[in-house]
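Sequence in, structure out. Go.
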Amino acid sequence: MESEIFNNSKLFIPKKSLGQNFLIDSNITTKICNIDDDITGCSVLEIGPGFGAITINLLKQKPKRLFAIEKDDRFKDNLNRIKKQYPNNFTFVIADALNFDFSPLYSNRLKIFSNLPYNISTKLLVKWLKLNISSANWGTLTLMFQKEVANRIISKSGTKSYGRLSLLSELLSDATHKFDVPQNCFRPKPKVISSIIHFKALTKPRYACNFQLLEKILFFAFNQRRKKIKNSLISMDTNINSILEESNISPESRAEEIDLANYCKLSLKINDHK
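Output:
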């Protein structure tokens, strides 16, 4: 069935509006599906199965169930063919993942896979990360991103790519870069290199924090990252200089110079001053 999948992709006209770039390299799809630990008996969620290249590889590993969400209804017949082959552990819906209520699917062993369209990749990642604030609502994520975005996710303090995405990923997961995917592995060929990132959910945030305040801090800090932190956060508290000093953060620091532990500490200090 895999050869049929890749042959069908040659006849299909991708929708630019959906950011469709189909994987046509069977070695890469197999490699993606083998990144995670053994998925036998696990619940799996796949976003954007398309022709089912990743789907078939995942089903061969005998998960307890695989639930797929596909926005493009042109794939309905193809997904129904896969369902006939795997009637007991494969189901799918035609829906927009950005607006979908994932809550009935969650378990601490849920494994999520996706070749995400670049235009929704960060939105979905942040949505999933924020679901793990109080407890692990999923176990692992194996996701594809534009390489530039992937670099932002795994970057460390002191680097130009360090920012909100890096900090949220570090707070709530262990994120690891697995490998890059060249442009010629897709049809149509994208203009950029892609990267696979694997996330393992933490059972609780890495550091204690006031999450709502932390989000605000990161928004103001990195929206004005060229400013000193005392200036970018002045709207949060008029006593921000003293709060920063209490948190052992230099008011003269720039946003990218402050690590996650100190941002979390700062969120608690600002909360104490309210």
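Check: Residues 68 and 92 are 4 Å apart (CA to CA). The longest strand covers residues 173-181.
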